[in-house]
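Q&A FORM
Asked by: J.P.
Topic: structure of Fluoride-specific ion channel FluC

PROVIDED:
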Amino acid sequence: MIPVLLALGVAVAGGIGAAARMVLDGAITAATRIPYPVGTTVVNVTGSLLLGVVTGLASGLGPWALVLGTGLLGGYTTFSTASFETVRLAQQGRWRAATANAFGMLLLALLAAWLGLWLGGLR
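REPLIED BY: S.T.
REPLY: Here is the structure written out as tokens.
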């Protein structure tokens, strides 16, 4: 059974992560003003990098690994928004942008997660 305080920590951290995502995505979208979901890409790639670091450090973090990884970074990153934006781009007939969003973000996120794991394991 998951301890109540740990579950509460994950829930609170998830809310903070979701709020951080909203603020960062909004700021990037306002600053770039291009019809491509740059904000979501930045959020998912940086979230993947940070989750890699947390995972690499997990053995030394104890329960904080769950709070940071599952809670904070789980709330911060967004697969569903990325999927929705890819479908929206395809519906608009913007096939290159949809393809770049789907596969480009996946590739960048995987590379960022790998880099994060490497960085997290350097202690």
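FOLLOW-UP: Helices lie at 4-32, 38-61, 64-76, 79-91, 95-120.
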